[in-house]
Amino acid sequence: MTGRHAAAVAPLTVAPLTVVHQERTLGAAEDLDLALRLLRRAQDGLIGPTLRLYRPEPTVAFGQRDAKLPGFDAAAQACRDRGFEPLIRKAGGRAAAYHRGCLVVDHIEPRADAIAGAKARFSHYGELLAESLRSLGVLAAVGEIPGEYCPGEFSVHGDDPVFPSHQVKLIGTAQRVVSGAWLFSSVIVVEDSGPLREVLTDSYAALGLEWSPATAGSVQDLSPDLRVEDVMGAVVARYSQETPLARATLESLLGD
């Protein structure tokens, strides 16, 4: 169910959810790979339902289709020129950019029937994240907007309170499913959208892909007083409404 006035989503997670706030970056590539490492540990039964939150290093995560385009090398160099590390992610979709003004939310769960219900997870957690932003006063809803980067049916967008016809993409979501576990990853753009628009403009031009830079925005563009910490708190609070939460360190999950 989508839309600003959608009913509250029903919980999909029934076991306690362990929340990990990763305060120290491991580096752009290492942080991206760590989500897959946690997915494998969930698949092996070494960890239970886990929510990992962190602020990423400047990165442009290209889809695997992007890497096959003739302009990919030029796009990757354009990223480096603007201080963003170009990486190729395992999930689908097109190029997405993020930096320290963003919040990455990785939700990992062991699940015997991980493949079943994949689309329901997109709908459910897209709406959960939209509700988190609405709790902060942001006019957020689920649904693709015309011309957005890395377009997706279950992206979360926001309406400009001054110019309601202007909508910007705030959250992109992606999912990776393996036998016995799933990973639902979201990037929430909270602060400083300018550098993201610039690097995406250069990257998409090099790849020969059309999009509308006006659709790339941030929570702060719509509500200037909000910060990453506010959004993180709202996301955790929303999760707490549907399942018990526990806290853990990243080292404990990795067995270090």
Task: Explain the overall architecture.
This protein has about 260 residues and is of the alpha/beta class. It has helices spanning about 30-45, 70-80, 120-135, 195-205, 220, 230-240, 250-255; strands at about 15-20, 50-55, 60, 85-90, 95-100, 100-110, 140, 155-160, 165-180, 180-190, 245. It has 7 helices and 11 strands. The strands form 2 sheets. An 8-stranded mixed β-sheet has the order 7-8-9-10-6-2-1-11, sandwiched between helices. A 3-stranded mixed β-sheet has the order 4-3-5, with helices on one face. Helix 2 links the parallel strand 3 (about 60) and strand 4 (about 85-90). Helix 2 runs antiparallel to helix 4 and helix 3 (about 120-135) packs across helix 6. The chain is globular. Mean pLDDT is about 90; it is low at about 1-10.
Anisotropy-based shape? globular
Portion in beta strands = 15-25%
**Total E-strand runs:** 11
Task: Name the quaternary structure.
Answer: single chain
How many helices? The count is 7
Strand order of the largest sheet: 7-8-9-10-6-2-1-11
Overall SS class: alpha/beta
The value of Rg in angstroms is: 17 Å
User: Could you estimate the helical fraction of the residues in percent?
Assistant: 25-40%
Give a short account of the largest sheet. 8 strands, mixed
Calculate the terminal CA-CA distance, rounded to whole Å.
Answer: 40 Å
Uncertain residue ranges: 1-10
